[in-house]
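Need tokens for this chain, all 185 residues.
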Amino acid sequence: MKKISLVIGCWLLVIGLIGCAGYMPAPQILPPNIKKIVIPTFENKTIYYGIEEKFTLRVIEEFLRDGRLEITKEENADALIKGEITRYVLEPLTYTADFVVKEYKLWVIFDLALYEKDKEEPLWEEKNLEGVYRFLAPTLPGGITEEDAREELWNILSRDILHRTIYGFGTVTGASERKIPSRSE
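Here are the structure tokens for all 185 residues:
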């Protein structure tokens, strides 16, 4: 009797796990009326001058490369992506025996939102979206400079922003809350 209940219990567990693995939330895809988008220069709340312009240009390049949304002027746009860089940290991770830095971590946090034209409430927003990139010091073989690491991080984040905008509102992970405002219709 114990063997039968153990076998039944195992089967129920397997069926339950298979059922959980098959669950996929409904995608929240970009509304079909949005064909043109504007991406103004992101705000920079850090002390690092000029990073906002290079990051914004990289995001625009990613949207242009993708080609599904037309980049346009604000008066012609159906939607607007707003971003704000809130933190920029270059952190040494490992050292040699002589206390020379071997590895760094570049850590950038920003807020991001997509607004439909002439609407105050965003279609989606994500606070504290973070990008992290670890790299070896430029003095080591295979090492790169901080600027090169920043460019690599901009590449990763711009693809994430495009993916989130086109495919859904849960495709990028931030360090804290992420939300889709509730619609009262």
